[in-house]
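anyone else get weird line breaks when pasting these?? whatever heres mine. first is seq + tokens for prot A
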Amino acid sequence: MERTAGTRSPLGHRMSKVTVEPTAVTLGHAPTLLGLFPLQSASSGCGFCAPGGFLKRRPVITLTTDFGLADHFVGVMKGVILSISPEVDLVDLSHQVAAHDIVDCAFLVAQSYRYFPPDTIHLVVVDPGVGSNRRPILATTSHYKFVAPDNGVLSLLYDREESCEVRHLTNDQYFLKPVSYTFHGRDIFSPVAAWLSTGVEVDRFGERIADYVRLAMPAPLRSPEGTVTGAILKVDSFGNLITNLTPQDIPELISEKPPSFTIIVNHQTIRRLVTSYSAGRPSELFAILGSSGYLELCTNQGSASTVLKASRGDEVKFVPERSGGHSGLTVHPGP
């Protein structure tokens, strides 16, 4: 992408010639592009311009809760943040996490956080233990910060990041007063996220801890005969069943000549893998490797959850045939 001399930025500044080469970065199973929009200005002095004339990127805070949108909770949290850090960009990741469902929230956060710009602050409030002795925490990775209750909601983050520093939020200088027993999203988590976005250093908020809560997520098991037993991690809003099976768990499924196989859920079977939802026949149950990187069980324009009478936690068995043939598996190209 090239900007030529004589052009103007959205703020009216003259632009010098800058050539930017997008950098492709692989996040999980999907690429993203970073560095596409560093606008350069020949002048400074604007509130949006950093020294040297580069337009500053506004800080980003995402919000993930189980509050829904019918009540005032989400709006009040945003009001607290904007009162402290008015230049921040707020992104609603989701407020429809199943009520009190820590595992559902952990999956959502793990699937989302790496698609945001570096230094994004992720504010996570699914907090059935609010008002108890559970700790509020700040977790910092090489690129992101997370403000959340210490109840395991960041467990998948801990599994995926090579290093993660966790602090107990104890410095009430950065809390709203008085702190209620029922709304730490407003009184602790939102103001801390806001102060972080203004540049307050992480060590100002509290001491490091090593005994943070880390939930044990179900892991697939492979038998000597090759059967892989997993579980349903999530039922999405379309009724697709997202399992905890990945290509690393069932590499034969993505091999050059995959074997015939059977997937068993609630005594019902699936025997076909396709590469897109539309490639499945109407009312047919089929498997797909979804964008989350997990094996999904689906039906075309229907609910696999309803058809299979399956929900999160139910067992899933992948049984490859060992006869050497592979005619029972048909992988159909997408449209």
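and prot B, same format (seq, then tokens)
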Amino acid sequence: MAERNPFFVDRTNAAPRPMNFWAPLVVSGATLEAEAARLAGLNLPHGSRRRSLIVHPSATEPGLGFAPGIEVSINLLMPGESTIRCRQNSSQVAMCVSGTGAALVGRQTLPFEQFDVWNVPSMDLYRYEGRGREPAVFLSYSNAPLLEKLGCITLRKIPQSRPTLPRPNRRASARKISPTISRSAATARACSATSI
């Protein structure tokens, strides 16, 4: 393998690059409705994410955004549909446009309906469920384009490997079962927590 060495670039008295100011734009409600209808018509396997980025024409790869460093996406969940679990290092804020659903973020379930706003913190495990009779449509905003431009974006899809079980009441469990079983249950919970 050839040896790679650092090198110098002379920037003495160099002027800064000119700013690229993005023009303001509006995405109409009719345009969003048409994209939502297109997403609803897709035939996708279980766990898929129906999602489209809304991209400004001045955006360039990597890191396509609607404003510099800001990603905006339209997302749709069909009734009864759920997405695969994900973990990413970008932070998100979302707002429901229509329908009802739930965001399962970390250990919390956040039911949402029209005009509700919620966040998904960086590196929290999350997924979505469509819980109404109509498709749930929501807009999501994140700093993913900034991280993509820095070359440090990560997104991991984590398949559900076991059924979700209700968490036991720790106080009740400690009173009703022997200490040996309590330790085994605690060990199992600790192992399952580190496996995701």
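btw re prot B: The two ends are 38 Å apart (CA to CA). The first strand starts at residue 50 and ends at 53.
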